Fold Cilia- and flagella-associated protein 36.
Amino acid sequence: MLRRFSKKNRNPPDGAASSTNDNERKYKKLVKKFLEFITSPVWSIPIASFIEGQSVVFDRAQMETEVYMEIHKEYSQLIDTLIECFCEDVGTTPAELIDAIKTINQQDISHHYKVSYYRTARSVRRRSVSGRPK
């Protein structure tokens, strides 16, 4: 009896809650894809290359704020371009991505990183154990 009651409460007849759940699932899926994207080489390689290429400009003896502002502008453009490409690839808009990130619970995001870290650590441990001489 309790199962039937809980199932009835999960699926209300008006359909409003189900569309909310569909949006929530869609947002979670979008945020998950975005989190996977920002941990991928497609994201990290251009950023690392940019930082390495521009790092020589930052010298403690020099304080060229105009140059720093120009580098910041270029970096912002790089990030915008990467995000726009991601959105185009998954068939969404940057505005929808921002809405999804805002609505997703921060615990879900931290959970994703914990799971990702666990999988990485586990694979590293497996490689180190299997690579030991017997």
Observations:
- The two ends are 59 Å apart (CA to CA).
- The chain has six helices and no strands.
- The CA atoms of residues 31 and 39 lie 12 Å apart.
